[in-house]
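Before relying on records like the one below, remember that each one covers exactly one chain. Contacts with other chains, cofactors or solvent are not represented anywhere in the record.
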Amino acid sequence: MPLVTPLSPDHDLETKELAEFFNETLGFCPNSVLTMQRRPAISKAFINLNKAVMANEGRVTSALKRMIAWVSSNATGCRYCQAHAIRAAERYGAEQEQLDNIWEYKTHPAFSDAERAALDFSLAASIIPNAVNEDIKAELYKHWNEGEIVEMLGVISLFGYLNRWNDSMGTSIEEGAVESGNQYLGKHGWEKGKHV
């Protein structure tokens, strides 16, 4: 049971209009946003930040951003965000082989060295204590420029917020996210846990 009950999507019309963004990314408005709208300034600021962070500015593709989000969420243990991130990666065109093997990104041939560097950065930046070091930096700079690194850290930081929000709230997970979680993550023990 969630800590705070989500409100109706019609509760705040400005939030509802902004939240149409999630119909593209997930196919539904997430319950996390429906809970945030108890303070509409938070829901609106969050949606606008999400749009800015997830905007496709070039080589850090929309699919890679969602895989970065998954690695970050997996590191922190937020099952709600793991399912959302893998669902969004699928909807944004991640290769089937990558979706099926996201747990093995470090060694699986479906991932390029540039993608591995980005995903290793996500892992290092998401654990406590933070593990971003000179080796992570050197690997990033082999493949990515500073603007692209800022984009990646924007995703990691956004999901740091979401992981804490949704795990603390025990946000109820939507059926579409459960389907994606079961399909791509279930073989490694993913379950919805407290997000019923």
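The mean pLDDT is 96.
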